[in-house]
Structure formats: C-alpha cells, structure tokens
Amino acid sequence: MAEDMKTLEENFRQRNRSCFLLGASGETGSLLLQELLERNIFSKITIIGRRRLTFEGKAYENLVQEVVDFEKLDDYAAAFQGHDVGYCCLGTTRAKAGADGFFRVDHDYVLKSAELAKAGGCSQFHLESSRGADKNSNFLYLKVKGQVEADIEALDFERYSIYRPGVLLVDRRESRPGEWLARKFFGAVSAVCSTPMSIPIQVVAKAMVSNTLRQPEQKTEILENKAIGDLGKSTGK
Ligand SMILES: NC(=O)c1ccc[n+]([C@@H]2O[C@H](COP(=O)([O-])OP(=O)(O)OC[C@H]3O[C@@H](n4cnc5c(N)ncnc54)[C@H](OP(=O)(O)O)[C@@H]3O)[C@@H](O)[C@H]2O)c1
Fold first, then answer.
1. DSSP state at residue 70
2. What ranges in the chain are assigned the alpha helix state H?
3. Which residues approach ligand 1 with their CB closer than 6 A?
4. What is the rounded distance in angstroms from the CA atom of residue 63 to the CA atom of residue 216?
5. Is residue 41 in a domain?
6. For the residues 125-150, what does the mean pLDDT come to?
7. Which of 55, 87, 90 minimizes the C-alpha distance to 70?
8. To test ligand 1's pocket by mutation, which of 92, 194, 224 has the most ligand atoms within 8 angstroms of CB?
9. How many other β-carbons are positioned within 10 Å of the β-carbon of residue 158?
10. Are 145 and 107 in contact (CB under 8 A)?
11. Ligand 1: which atom is nearest the Cα of residue 131?
12. Domain count, the chain
C-alpha cells in the first residue's frame, strides 16, 4: 500500500498540476496545506483567504497567497483562474456568525468560490462538508452543508469529491464549548483514531490528498467518516 501511494504521488507530480486551497488558516486547512507541501504533488499551491498568513520564517517556493474580500469575490476572479484542483475547508459556526452569517460563509462564499474556479478552468473540487449533510434537514447546519454540496454538484466539475467527517478531533486554537464537549465524548474513545462518529483532523487532511491521487469511481463521490478514516491511513509514509 505504501509503495502504491508513492507511485501514485510520483505519477501525479509529473503532471505538473496546480491547486488552490480555501481555509488554509483553519484547523483542517492548515494541516491540509502542510500535507500538500510535504507530499509535494503540485507544482504550485495557492492559498486564498481573507488575511495573509506567515510561516515562521519558512519560505515555500511553490506557495502563492491571494488575499481576497469574500464579500466581493467577483473582483478577485483572477485569484481563482488557472488551477487544476480546488480544496475547500472554509467554514464558520452559527455561534460565531449568526444564522445568516453562517449561511453566507458556508454556502455563499464556498459556492461563489467554486463558480469562479470552474469558470477559471478548474476541473476538480474537493469539499470538506460534514457527516449528516442533507439539504432537506431541519437542522440549519446540516441543511446548509447539504445545500452547498448540491449547488456545487450542479456546476458539473469533471471530478467532485465531498468529504463528510464526523466530529473533528482537534486541539482547537479558539474556544468552542459545545464542540469541546462533543470532542471530550468522542475523543474519550480515541484521541488519535477515527471512531464511527469522529475523526482527527490529521486523518481528514491526509485522506483529502490521498484521494486526489486516486481515480474516482464516479464523477461525484461522497466519502463518509469511515472511508475518510481508511484513506487517511494510507499515506505511504
Ligand atoms: N467542527 C467539527 O467537528 C466539524 C465536523 C465536520 C465538518 N466540519 C466542517 O469542516 C470545515 C473545516 O472545519 P475547521 O474546524 O477545520 O475550520 P476552522 O478551523 O473553523 O477554519 C475555518 C476557515 O474558514 C475561514 N473563515 C471563517 N469565517 C470566514 C469569513 N467570514 N470570511 C472568510 N473566511 C472565513 C477561516 O479564516 P480565518 O482564519 O481568517 O478566520 C478559516 O480559514 C468547516 O466547513 C466545518 O463546518 C466541522
């Protein structure tokens, strides 16, 4: 399996592809960026966010930063042009942004970014969604996640991968009491391994990269928590 993954990485690397990443300052996104840099499968990685990030003096030759105003994304269409693959780990919470703000970020910003990327020639979109996402749900969180999943599918990317992790196991830099409680509960089962309901963010990040290297069975694929956990173990390291 490790050898297979190394071969897949090498084959992918030779195609000289570029990607962009939304949410690189967040918990999953920062690990995904680290994973992308370490595995070095893209010739160029563009992080698109609302603020410039610093990397403690480290310089990455193939890393580009684009700072955008998500309320005026049309003005920043150029940032979304010319990428082969897009990754999205963007998101907020209702507690932080209110119901309208949550919809604005987790639906509108994500969908608009996907639209601009598609118009700019991007062929693959990888979306970190959530376990239970369902556009018909009565719960705002799951409804919005399901709605944005469906709206992006309608854009008809050549490949569209939806990741639906359970509770993210993470030592979050910011305090979120509700999530902390869920983490304590699920994390009690295992802090480092996936459970049916939870998953460490490291595993999600590894899975998103490993999955990019594989040929999908379908144009649109949905990876539930277990599939993400299985894939996240097969990194070839
Ligand atoms: N928490 C869970 O247990 C769980 C479970 C399943 C799925 N998910 C989903 O997984 C995804 C990633 O979660 P995470 O916890 O890794 O994310 P996170 O740490 O909260 O990071 C969120 C990212 O979105 C950006 N963002 C938030 N509000 C924004 C705004 N108004 N304008 C522009 N950018 C904004 C943040 O940028 P700044 O750094 O600039 O704020 C950051 O890069 C989210 O979609 C989340 O809903 C979460």
1. G
2. 2-13, 27-39, 94-103, 110-119, 140-153, 177-187, 201-213, 225-233
3. 23, 25-29, 49-51, 70, 89-92, 105-106, 128, 130, 165, 167-168, 179
4. 27
5. yes
6. 98
7. 90
8. 92
9. 12
10. no
11. 6
12. 1
Is 149 a member of any domain?
yes
For residue 237, tell me if it sits in a domain: no
DSSP 58: -
Q: Which of 21, 27, 71 to mutate to test the pocket of ligand 1 (most atoms within 8 A of CB)?
A: 27
Question: How confident is the model at residue 181, as a pLDDT?
Answer: 53
CATH number of the domain enclosing 11: 3.40.50.720
Cβ proximity of 120 and 81 under 8 Å: yes
Burial track 92-123 (b if 16+ CB lie within 10 A, e otherwise): bbeeeeeeeebbbbbbbbbbebbbbbbebebe
Q: Which domain holds residue 120?
A: 2-232
Instruction: For ligand 1, atom 46, name the residue with the nearest CA.
Output: 91
The reply to whether 135 belongs to the active site is: no
Please say if 163 is a catalytic residue. no
Residue 185 has pLDDT above 70, yes or no: no
**Considering the chain, what is the average pLDDT of its residues?**
91
Give the Å distance between the CA of 10 and the centre of ligand 1: 31
End-to-end CA distance of the chain: 10
Which of 112, 135, 141, 143 does the annotation list as catalytic?
A: 141
Q: What is the pLDDT of residue 56?
A: 82
